[in-house]
Amino acid sequence: MRRREFLGSSAGLAAASLAGAASGLVSPAVSLAEKPKPGVKSAESAMSLPIIDTHQHLWDLSKFKLPWQAEEPTLAKNYLPADYLAAIAGQNVVQSVYMEVDVEVSQQHAEAEYVLELCARDDNPMTAAVISGRPASDDFVSYMKRYEKNDRIKGIRQVLHGASTPPGYCTAPAFVRGIQHLGTIGKSFDLCMRSDDMGDAVKLATLCPETRFIMDHCGNMSVTETKPAPRKIWLDGMKALAERPNVVCKVSGIIASASVKWTPQEMAPVVLDTIKAFGIDRVMFAADWPVCTLRAQFGQWVDCLNEIVKDFSEADRRKLFHDNAKAFYALPDKKWKA
Length: 338
What we know:
Structural class: alpha/beta
Number of domains: 1
Shape: globular
CATH class: Alpha Beta
Strand content: 5-15%
Low-confidence stretches: 1-46
Number of strands: 8
Strand order of the largest sheet: 1-2-3-4-5-6-7-8
CATH superfamily: Metal-dependent hydrolases
CATH topology: TIM Barrel
Distance between the termini: 41 Å
């Protein structure tokens, strides 16, 4: 399935909504200029609890080629560290974890070096990174060799919902061996896949018990999907995945499948079902910036999620927004200033 087909199929309201998050890299059905302001607080509202953003994208098109942008031109412009700092102003973001952006395979090492340099600087919150990789490739072990002792590189991601990764791709023997190798060197793998492929995620996590997994974007369930069958497939899969102790989940990305006039209530079922499945100790906030800007600014997504979990205890909200990520990624403190 091509990226555009994935997007079109995952949103129940094609003309009025975005499709489900694709690797965090998606295209809107309307332009940002057409996006209404939802009835939640704006990005100016500061949050008292500290935030660790576990899914921060950046791309500098003078350095990297992102082939997916040929089909998704809305995001085909630079999103640089200064833009991210502007987006998080007033939000008490204390640290962030970079997420790979599906650059050309030949540029994967260069992307890693780019973000490692940002992690070492004190002018931004980036502390660690999840980089791109191809676990099924013959040279995957040698590819990982230069990163296996680098504590800033926490894991690998390969997007699993594209035409080149059909259902069952991630359970093939070569792919499984690559993921098992990640476990032997203490690296994780991010699962970014179709919402109806949860069974593949369950099989992979079962076959690789020593590898830690992170399910991205609440399993990419479109928040506009109203048909019972797709939601049942997703939720049954999420529950089965949550039974594997080596899997956690990011609460992120779902804003990209929201309707134009979205509300926190539209987002709430997917968020709350995800948290119920995994438990409050195994979920982590992520912004999926700049993809979230297709429907909401950084602060609006934070406020939306705060509204959904407003009845949670302060300790549980702190786990969601900060503590779980700090522990899962073993992030050292970072003192930074814009």
